[in-house]
Design a protein that fits this description.
By secondary structure, this protein is an alpha/beta fold. It has 4 domains: 175 residues, MoaB/Mog-like domain (Molybdenum Cofactor Biosythetic Enzyme, Chain A), CATH 3.40.980; 58 residues, Molybdopterin biosynthesis moea protein, domain 2 (Alpha-Beta Complex), CATH 3.90.105.10; 81 residues, Beta Complex (Molybdopterin biosynthesis moeA protein, domain 3); 72 residues, Beta-clip (Beta Barrel). It is built from 8 helices and 28 strands. The strands form 8 sheets. The protein has a 6-stranded mixed beta sheet, with no helix packed on it.
């Protein structure tokens, strides 16, 4: 969808601030999922599937024992049965089980022909060459049927799902050696500001250590991006232009700082001169109101505020969902957890607020304790929080003890 079409669909930017959910919708409307590539299964963890992955074999591929015990014919029980073989995993029986017989079997072993149940070892009395079983059993007891988990030709992983450890294991068990995954988005992160110097160097007058770019890079890499972090640039037009032009060659450019209206805020103007079409600027939220979003060709461009907490919030709400959507993830927006508020939070009629809080478990319930000093945008203070409570715009308050959505940090 073109920038103009996005504007027509969601409403052109006016003097009123754009609502948070509308801004997120505009970002996702501009995303074009990246092409797929074949990935060896051992390298697919954390990737997003681009096409359904189909089981090659039945799983399990044979009727197998769910317990250590004895393979039997259910119709022979109760009774005393002669033990005629020992079936280990990977070593099937060489003959059919006959009436009046049992075979010792390990978990995962092939249930022999003629047997239709397994009796756990703790339920038998073991004699010299036989076992005594006092209780009846149902046919099928403790037997995993062939194809009971998945049948050959079934979908093991649909398109658009994140491939975690359990899914990787299921794919391997189903005989799938490679899987189609969306290409990882290439993201360039750039921090701007003459006051920024790398950690480890002496601070001069008015200088601070640059933390935003490394923070944003870590967050975006966790969302599946391949991140290149450029050196911070001073408030100089040529330095800005060179760095931004380099960043525009990526799938996503994320800048930090320089998106407000001060004389040294150069990012939006220089991006416009380089052909970036701005979709929106300023969102009705706190922190992070001055966030901007634009496109140039297929490149998505996010301008995040220089305040570290605002930058982190903008990344969580806009840039990371875009990175997930580029990979074809079916639900790329932030996934909120739910907890109980330890203190009331007043709502703002004009904007959504993201309140820093400490989430702690009390039994089966997560309690959210809002932190003091919300006006501070220093990341050291913010790092004491492990949650962002979403307070939607509106009247009144979220009362103490009420259920509230939050993003884990």
């Amino acid at each position: 969808m073109s920038v103009s079409a996005i504007a027509l669909r969601y409403g052109r930017m006016t003097s009123a601030l754009l609502a948070l959910d509308d801004a997120q919708a505009q970002v996702l409307a501009a995303v074009r999922p990246l092409p797929a590539e074949e990935v060896p299964l051992e390298h697919a963890a954390g990737r997003v599937s681009a096409a359904p992955a189909i089981a090659v074999v039945d799983l399990p591929p044979f009727a197998s024992s769910a317990m250590d015990g004895y393979a039997v014919r259910a119709e022979d029980l109760p009774g005393t049965l002669a033990v005629v073989a020992d079936v280990a995993a990977g070593m099937p029986a060489t003959r059919t089980l006959a009436s009046g017989e049992a075979m010792a079997i390990s978990t995962g072993g092939v249930v022999p022909e003629g047997a239709n149940a397994v009796v756990p070892v703790e339920h038998v009395v073991q004699l010299a060459n036989s076992v005594e079983i006092a209780e009846r059993v149902e046919a099928g007891a403790h037997v995993r049927p062939r194809g009971g988990d998945v049948a050959a030709g079934d979908v093991v992983a649909d398109a658009g799902v994140l491939l975690g450890a359990a899914r990787i294991g299921a794919l391997a068990a189903a005989g799938i050696p490679r899987i189609a995954c969306a290409r990882r988005p290439r993201v360039v992160v750039l921090a701007t500001g003459s006051e920024l110097v790398p950690p480890g160097t002496p601070l001069g007058p008015g200088q601070v250590y640059e933390a935003n770019a490394v923070m944003l890079a870590a967050s975006l890499a966790a969302a599946g991006a391949e991140v290149e972090r450029l050196a911070a640039v001073a408030d100089d037009e040529r330095a800005h232009r060179d760095a931004i032009e380099r960043g525009l060659s990526a799938d996503v450019l994320v800048t930090s700082g320089g998106v407000s209206v001060g004389p040294h805020d150069l990012v939006r103007r220089i991006e416009a001169e380089l052909g970036v079409e701005e979709v929106f600027w300023q969102v009705a939220m706190r922190p992070g109101k001055p966030v901007s979003f634009g496109v140039r060709g297929e490149t998505l461009v996010f301008g995040l505020p220089g305040n570290p907490v605002s930058s982190l919030v903008g990344c969580e709400l806009f840039a990371k969902p875009a990175v997930r959507a580029l990979q074809g993830l079916r639900d790329p927006l932030p996934r909120y957890e739910r907890g109980l508020l330890a203190a009331a939070l007043r709502r703002n009629e004009a904007r959504d607020e993201l309140v820093r809080a400490r989430a702690r478990a009390e039994g089966d319930v997560v309690v959210l304790e809002p932190l003091a000093g919300q006006e501070s945008h220093m990341i050291v203070r913010a790092s004491a929080a492990n949650a962002l409570v979403h307070v939607p715009r509106g009247k009144g308050e979220l009362a103490e003890g009420s259920v509230a959505p939050y993003l884990p940090l």
